[in-house]
Automatic annotation (TrEMBL):
SUPFAM superfamilies: PLP-dependent transferases. This is DegT/DnrJ/EryC1/StrS family aminotransferase. It comes from Kitasatospora cystarginea. Pfam families: DegT_DnrJ_EryC1. Keywords: Aminotransferase, Pyridoxal phosphate, Transferase.
Length: 366
């Protein structure tokens, strides 16, 4: 039995290797490592892909969220509603932007931010950050209705190309952020991210703040920092973006295959798709009601790169203790954290690999 990784980055690289090498050669020949022509080209291509007019490349996804929040110029210390079940970066960006995370619980079926809980928290808050967890959009229509005049900022780090009612991730919020961390559906060869928006003023503000507050060399109009997309990463992202629709389709086929292989099995619940969503399966997370950690250990022992995303919800992280939440604050997120188990899924995964995962999982469950 050969090992099966959670994500196979080499398999993705093999598909773009030639294009990436040619692109790197082009950049190396000019030395335009910062703000080279590939950055502008990628930004235009990614804006179009996201159904908006503007995309601004950033150094990573956490910065993209921070820049989006800073561009909105909310009152210092204002509350920002976000789900407890997310990668910690969502909450970090809120704090970094000088704002206050207001966490809410998720729904028990899809583990996406629960509109009923968001409704309770929004009156005391200035903005809402839904997280499109695991590759599917949070319920955007109810959330936009609830938010009213408050800006909605999508955390689309896990959902490049995902749709709801036909409308693509990144085009729902007033401004949205994404990450091109290597393991994401659209992954760079290092850290990278982007902000997307239809609003020209916001796009300009993001560009300014992420480039030392400067639109013209040595004129610093506003306080900023350095968070730009590298030209070499833009080369990689351009090559991969062209493959992304096909790759997302392959992920959907692989998710369907797990459905066939694992459907009806006792002891696990398979992930569902919220009605109206076109899922891009960034992560395929099943739930194991009893003995999840033993099942995970058995998978690892058999060379299967399963994981847990995420084992500890944000409100129980030591770093966020001062927000004042405790065990029991968000029971749905807490229960899920003890049950979720992510199986290997990537566009190039083979039927044989998936059968091997399923076989090992069935044995581990019994
Ligand atoms: C990956 C991720 C981020 C942060 O992205 P980085 O590029 O690693 O900074 C933010 N939010 C979510 C939900 C993520 O999965």
């Amino acid at each position: 039995m050969t090992a099966i990784p959670l994500v196979d980055l080499q398999a993705a690289h093999a598909e773009v290797a030639e294009e990436v090498r040619e692109g790197f050669d082009r950049v190396l020949a000019t030395g335009a490592y910062i703000k080279g022509p590939d950055v502008a080209a990628f930004e235009a291509e990614y804006a179009e892909f996201s159904g908006v007019r503007h995309a601004v490349g950033t150094a990573n996804g956490t910065d993209a969220l921070e820049l989006a929040l800073r561009a909105l110029r909310l009152a210092p210390g204002a509350g920002v509603v976000l789900p407890a079940n997310t990668f910690v970066a969502t909450a970090e960006a809120v704090v970094r932007a000088g704002l206050r995370p207001v966490l809410v619980d998720v729904d028990p079926e899809y583990l996406l931010i629960d509109p009923a809980r968001a409704a309770e928290a929004l009156p005391g808050a200035a903005a809402l950050v839904p997280v499109h967890l695991n590759g599917q959009l949070a319920p955007m229509r109810p959330l936009l209705d609830l938010a009213g005049d408050r800006p909605v900022i999508e955390d689309g780090a896990q959902s490049q190309g995902a749709r709801q009612d036909g409308r693509v991730s990144g085009s729902w919020g007033r401004i949205s952020a994404t990450s091109f961390y290597p393991g994401k559906n659209l992954g760079a060869y290092g850290d990278a991210g982007a902000v997307v928006t239809d609003d020209e003023e916001l796009a300009t503000a993001v560009r300014l703040i992420g480039d030392h507050g400067s639109g013209r060399k040595y004129v610093h109009e506003t306080f900023g920092f350095n968070s730009r997309l590298d030209t070499l990463q833009a080369v990689v992202l351009r090559a991969k973006l062209r493959r992304l629709p096909g790759w997302n389709e392959a992920r959907r086929a692989a998710a369907a295959r797990y459905g066939e292989l694992l459907g009806g099995l006792d002891g696990i619940t398979l992930p569902g798709t919220l009605p109206g969503n076109e899922h891009v399966w960034h992560l395929y997370a099943v739930r194991v009601e009893h003995g999840r950690d033993e099942v995970l250990a058995k998978l690892h022992a058999a060379g299967i790169g399963a994981g847990i995303h995420y084992p500890v919800p944000v409100h129980l992280q030591p770093a966020f203790r001062e927000l004042g939440y405790a065990e029991g604050s968000f029971p749905v997120a807490e229960r899920a954290a003890g049950e979720i188990l992510t199986l290997p899924l990537f566009p190039q995964i083979t039927a044989v690999q998936q059968e091997q995962v399923a076989e090992t999982l069935v044995k581990a469950l019994h």
